[in-house]
Amino acid sequence: MAFNEQQPRVYISKELLLQLAVIAISLILPLFLVTKLEILPFVMIIGIVGLLLVMKQPFIGLLMYLIIFYIRPQEIWFTGAVGIEKTIGLAMLVLTVLKLKMVNNFRFKITNIHIAIFAFVALALVNVATSYWLSHSWEIWVKLIRLVIVFFCIVHLIDTEKQFKVFIMFTILGTLFHASSAVIRYYQGIREVEMGIERAFAMDTSLGDPNSLAATVVYTLPLLFYYISDKTSRITKIFLGMTSLVFLWCIMLTGSRTGMAAVLVFGFMLIWERKNKIRNFILIALFLVLAVAVMPEQYQQRFISIEEVVEDSSDDSGAATSARSRLVFLHYAFQMFLDRPLFGFGMGNFSTAMGTIYGTLWLQAHSLPAQLISEMGLAGIITFFAWVIIMFRHLRRFKRYFKKTGNKFFYNMTLAMHTHIILLFFMGLGGHNLFRYNWYIISAIIVMMMNKQISGYSPKRIEENLEKSNTPQQVIPEITE
């Protein structure tokens, strides 16, 4: 009788191991992160169902997390339950790594944008150790880690053009939720009275104040416009066109002068990027006149005050005082930089230093330059601008490549990201946006556009390949709509 050959025995598969990991993560993480016991079972059940779904359809799991990330229900309906996003975010990260490594045998591709982000976050950790108020800087660093998790999950769970477009649409819809709810609440009488006007605000607490809401909407405008410019269905164009009107009306109701000025900057950038500049300038000017005409009087005065503040430096109105205070804060920020040139006073410590060391009001920096030089010093300036320069270099290559290869959608996305960064810097003249999530979303979009599987982009000797090719290259027409 012949002996059967001994076969290796598999006691547990990788899939089963992942399922056990899902259950363990969903049961253990909420115990440490969820602060409201009454919603603990709800978080555990949602976590198990959601994370099991991640294993089968990782992209759907990512969309679930993006809903929480963009809408922030833990700040609206579950006030105080700050552990919801942390639980799902950390679980998403762990499951992403486990699935990619154990099931797909995936090797992580590290780009120079990855390195730039990791360098900035690593410097931020050093910044915490040297900060004037350590605990406050630590809180901001933890929020940066959350943004890194979002960046990591996005770039490694989206791998097709269709998924990329769905992600862009989710980003637009997330902003639409906050903008439309703020407008509805405004007309229900739920509004703030500040700077002598009534102002709309969002329901969340972290980015819900009028100026932050206006900034969120402004940053989404490039994505919205260039998505409309693509060959989408008529229904989609109509929906996005209505969305743009909601966005613009919301910006007006916030009473944010910087937001209104940013809309003008965006309009001029559109004129610059397109043919028929004179015609487009006339159209935008007519639209501006019409918009001012339909504005309620208090917002007309707020809009006109942009020019008045610039022209009349002796004006003692609240708007003028607010505008001139930015220059005062910049002066103090430069003094802080001289006092602590290498690492600054620490993230989030501008107001603390203003009140305790310099004997003035405990106020935020209210500008990106003041925030960067005072809180992160020379090291922060170098790492941050290295990150931004890397993004601009990729966008320049994208613009050249997608224009020559005729990929209109990703050409439009390149213009949208370029405009997005410009608007971040412009809005940064009147607001401290150094640690906003937008920098990480832009970085994620750029990394996804580097993925040949998503966009068809081939980074190896682009110009040489195009010049040596005997096939005539299609050149896309300039955007004229």
Report on this model:
By secondary structure, this protein is an all-alpha fold. 72% of the residues lie in helices and 1% in strands. The protein has 21 helices and 2 strands. A two-stranded antiparallel ribbon has the order 1-2. Strand 1 and strand 2 form a beta hairpin. The radius of gyration is 25 Å and the shape is globular. Residues 309-314 and 469-476 have low confidence and may be disordered.
Brief description of this entry?
This protein is mainly α.
Tally of helical runs: 21
**Low-pLDDT ranges:** 309-314, 469-476
Beta-strand fraction estimate:
under 5%
Q: For the residues shown, what is the average pLDDT?
A: 79
Number of strands: 2
- How large, in whole angstroms, is the Cα Rg? 25 Å
How much helicity do the residues have? over 70%
Give a quick account of the main beta sheet: strands, pairing sense, barrel closure. 2 strands, antiparallel
- As laid out across the biggest beta sheet, the strand order is 1-2
Structural class of the secondary structure composition?
mainly alpha
Q: What coarse outline follows from CA principal-axis ratios?
A: globular
Distance between the termini: 82 Å
Topology order in helix (H) and strand (E) letters: HHHHHHHHEEHHHHHHHHHHHHH
Question: Could you outline the blueprint of secondary structure elements for this entry?
Answer:
Elements: H1 14-33, H2 40-56, H3 58-71, H4 73-76, H5 83-103, H6 112-129, H7 134-157, H8 161-187, E1 192-194, E2 197-199, H9 210-229, H10 234-254, H11 257-273, H12 277-294, H13 297-311, H14 318-339, H15 350-356, H16 368-375, H17 377-405, H18 408-427, H19 438-450, H20 452-455, H21 462-468
Antiparallel strand pairs: 1-2
